[in-house]
Amino acid sequence: MMRAVIFDLDGVLVSTDHFHYMAWKQIADRLGIPFDEDTNNRLRGVSRMESLDIILSGASDQQFTDEQKQSLAEEKNAIYRKLLEELSPADILPGVTETLEGLQTKGVAAAIGSSSKNARFILEQVGLLDRFTIVVDGNQISRSKPDPEVFLLAASLLECDALACLVVEDAVAGVQAGVHAGMQVAAVGDAINSKDATFKLQRIDQLLKLI
Ligand code: B16
Ligand code: MG
To answer: Are 107 and 117 within one domain?
Structure first.
């Protein structure tokens, strides 16, 4: 029996992909590194520094010190944070509010398991922060998806066995993280192409039928 649902944030509850893209694009253009929406899709669920490494791998002729990389990541985050200020409750993805209400009615806990260090800010901006019993984000983990750390920490804080947790993810790396945590995983968006997903949902509110 499912006792808790652990939601990924970006791409599941709110879509900030384009904001990530615009911020990274400014940095990549300045450095003369090719960067398009396809490369941006590879950054889903991946930490900020790992995302930067993927982008910089497109510039094999340029070398960057750790200090330079740190500075580029901070610059990207400042641009991204400014864009996040535009978020409002209107940016909550379709079906999310109904899903959270449905879980509350069924007495199933809702938690967040996100790689983003901006997760709390995003949740505040869209007015969803108080809907979650537990929020685990990129500030609390040292290994990012597909490592299961973020989901195992959420389950531990929920005092819930992994077998009784369902993860909802839009990224292939996130689906793998849920599977590595020993949890069932419902894939939405691009992640429905992942062979590892336990369930594939066209709409997030379909998960209410799984509980
Ligand atoms: P930040 P999620 C992830 O969030 C995003 O999908 C990924 O594109 C981003 O690089 C990562 O957070 C880190 O974000 O720079 O805000 O710490 O999908 O795990 O909720
Ligand atoms: Mg995501």
So the answer is: yes
Same domain, 191 and 129: yes
Q: The domain that contains 51 carries what CATH number?
A: 1.10.150.240
Measuring from atom 15 of ligand 1, which residue has the nearest CA? 48
Nearest listed ligand to the Cα of residue 139: 1
Output the tens digit of pLDDT for each of the chain's 211 residues. 899 999 999 999 999 999 999 999 999 999 999 999 999 989 999 999 999 999 999 888 889 999 999 999 999 999 999 999 999 999 999 999 999 999 999 999 999 999 999 999 999 999 999 999 999 999 999 999 999 999 999 999 999 999 999 999 999 999 999 999 999 999 999 899 999 999 999 999 999 999 9
User: Whole-angstrom Cα distance, residue 72 to residue 57?
Assistant: 14
Domain end (from 32, 49, 84)? 84
Q: Got the DSSP string for 114-174?
A: -S-TTHHHHHHHHT-GGG-SEEE-TTS-SS-TTSSHHHHHHHHHHT--GGGEEEEESSHHH
Q: Please, which residues have CB less than 5 A from ligand 2, an ion? A: 8, 10-11, 45, 170-171
